[in-house]
Amino acid sequence: MEKEKDIMEMNFEEIRCFFITTLSNLFFMSKNYKNLMFDT
Question: In sequence order, what E strands does 1-40 have?
Protein backbone atom coordinates (compact mmCIF):
# COMPACT_ATOMS: atom_id res chain seq x y z
CA MET A 1 0.00 0.00 0.00
CA GLU A 2 2.79 2.42 0.90
CA LYS A 3 4.53 1.95 -2.44
CA GLU A 4 1.29 2.34 -4.39
CA LYS A 5 0.55 5.55 -2.53
CA ASP A 6 4.03 6.89 -3.33
CA ILE A 7 3.56 6.08 -7.02
CA MET A 8 0.18 7.83 -7.01
CA GLU A 9 1.66 10.97 -5.45
CA MET A 10 4.61 10.92 -7.83
CA ASN A 11 2.27 10.59 -10.82
CA PHE A 12 0.17 13.45 -9.49
CA GLU A 13 3.28 15.66 -9.21
CA GLU A 14 4.39 14.71 -12.72
CA ILE A 15 0.92 15.38 -14.14
CA ARG A 16 0.75 18.71 -12.32
CA CYS A 17 4.18 19.73 -13.66
CA PHE A 18 3.22 18.64 -17.17
CA PHE A 19 -0.07 20.55 -16.94
CA ILE A 20 1.62 23.74 -15.75
CA THR A 21 4.31 23.45 -18.42
CA THR A 22 1.71 22.92 -21.14
CA LEU A 23 -0.34 25.88 -19.95
CA SER A 24 2.67 28.20 -19.87
CA ASN A 25 3.75 26.97 -23.31
CA LEU A 26 0.30 27.69 -24.73
CA PHE A 27 0.26 31.11 -23.12
CA PHE A 28 3.75 31.88 -24.48
CA MET A 29 2.78 30.71 -27.97
CA SER A 30 -0.41 32.78 -28.04
CA LYS A 31 1.55 35.81 -26.85
CA ASN A 32 4.08 35.35 -29.66
CA TYR A 33 1.25 34.86 -32.15
CA LYS A 34 -0.39 38.12 -31.09
CA ASN A 35 2.94 39.95 -31.33
CA LEU A 36 3.45 38.60 -34.84
CA MET A 37 0.00 39.74 -35.89
CA PHE A 38 0.54 43.22 -34.48
CA ASP A 39 3.93 43.50 -36.17
CA THR A 40 2.43 42.73 -39.59
Answer: none
Predicted model pTM: 0.52
Ordered per-residue pLDDT tens for the chain, 40 residues: 577 777 677 788 899 999 999 999 999 988 887 777 776 5
Number of domains present in the structure of the chain = 1
Distance between CA 1 and CA 32 in Å, rounded? Answer: 46
- Domain with 3, as residue range(s), is 1-39
Handedness of CA 7, 10, 14, 20 (dihedral sign): positive
